[in-house]
Design goal:
The protein contains three helices and no strands. The protein is flat. The two termini are 36 Å apart. It has a domain of 28 residues.
Length: 76
């Protein structure tokens, strides 16, 4: 029985493939915290508030639709 091993180049091209999924979410959150720390939104950006709320709602609904679609299509 032969074992196949991935070359080191293959694992460096896909570093998150072997990482548990919750850690990818944690790293994405920490990346967002870092961006917020470097480029904070001030109270002077109140004019952007409705735009940010709409963008957040669109992203949430898109994510909910994709998750629901995955749930419905995998249960059959």
């Amino acid at each position: 029985m032969s074992k196949t091993f991935e070359s080191p180049a293959a694992t460096t091209r896909r570093p998150f493939l072997h990482m548990p999924v919750p850690w990818v979410f944690v790293l994405a959150f920490l990346l967002g915290v870092g961006v917020q720390f470097l480029l904070p939104l001030s109270s002077a950006s109140a004019s952007l508030s409705p735009l940010v709320m709409i963008a957040g709602a669109v992203l949430f609904v898109t994510g909910a639709v994709v998750a629901g679609w995955g749930l419905v299509s995998s249960s059959g």
